[in-house]
Write a structure and sequence with these properties.
CATH topology: Rossmann fold
Radius of gyration: 15 Å
Distance between the termini: 33 Å
Strand order of the largest sheet: 2-1-3-4
Helix content: 25-40%
Shape: globular
Largest sheet: 4 strands, parallel
CATH superfamily: Response regulator
Number of helices: 5
CATH architecture: 3-Layer(aba) Sandwich
Number of domains: 1
Number of strands: 4
Strand content: 5-15%
Length: 165
Amino acid sequence: MTDQHPPFEVLFVCNSNCGRSLFAEAILNREGEGRFRAYSGGARPADAPNPVAIDLLGKLGHDTSGLQPKNWDVFREPGAPAFDFIFTVCDEAAGEPCPAWPGDPMHAHWSVPDPTRFTGTEAEIYAVYEDAYRMLLQRVRLFTSLPIRELDRMSLHNRVQGIGA
């Protein structure tokens, strides 16, 4: 049975938009099975995706061809998606003054430690990225399992916030 509703539009925000938010975008686009359309952006995007993040996503079977850091302002231009949900995945982005988004998107903060700040051996660094990926995978799976269309707005907001707690 297919969902007769248009997909929920979701934006993941992280300041540099080069790792965690790209993870979340890729994960939701796969796990959401067409019920969600995910994007990512940042206040101060990096010049390129983090190579460890892209390598890990590729090894896990994600399509990485369209994953690039973007300024979140591109999502406020004419023709941009009207978001249903906006999730910050880094504490710095949560503290940024967010732009006014069209519509009435639901906001939640899903803090994930920044793997780029970790130093160690190549294997240790890779393990930290894997941990960030697993954390986001678990949160996205919880999110996609919510009966979104059946919950009132306050209940849905509480459940979405609870995923990041």
